[in-house]
Amino acid sequence: MSAGRTARERVRAELTREITDIARRQLAVDGAGGLSLRAVAREMGMVSSAIYRYFPSRDDLLTALIIDGYNAVGEAVEKADAACPREDHAGRWMAVCHAVRDWALTHPHEYALLYGSPVPGYQAPMDTVVAAVRDTVVYGRILSEAHAAGTLNPPDVCPPAPAPFGADAVRVREVMPGVPDDVVARALVAWTGLFGWVNFELFGQFNNVILDPATAFDHAMRCHAALLGLPVAATAPPHGK
Asked: pTM higher than 0.70, yes or no?
């Protein structure tokens, strides 16, 4: 009986993986708004009612794709961070920034699902939160450890964080314990700057403007590192694509 259950679980896992693989191909052609369980079933040679046993609705399938995507970004960031010396906080920051960009360029349609326009009628459930913050936890840990080590020295170029920001900083500081409010505020600038740059590049806003995007991206992330107070070198060889 146990062996039979294991076999069924294995078949279910394989079919679930096939469904999500086909759905990702649909994203590339029709976008998230065109995702269709019926179309997935047709490609698999299944009746529509059968696929609903795996994903009861389109939104359930979207949620699975979103969780997979966030986990993939998180894993890429975690691996990039783990490959760096722990004391090289600036190098770790640069590595994780490049990891996000590299993943986005390799998986543009999945990236667009996560960070592009919202899917009309879809509201992400709380199930997505743990996967969504995997990369954020890494950024926060880098800054928290740099602050604890005394290597985080933000330049005096920004106004103080406004008083109302204090409540927000408490929540953000959950991923960067011990970091003062002004650094938390700068971290938000840097994180949104990272994804803003990737969005501009991926969605064509730099076309015919930025001819060497890898070098330009590297420079931009070094600027963010400097704003954060990380002792990053001014220049470095281009990284990525």
From this structure: yes
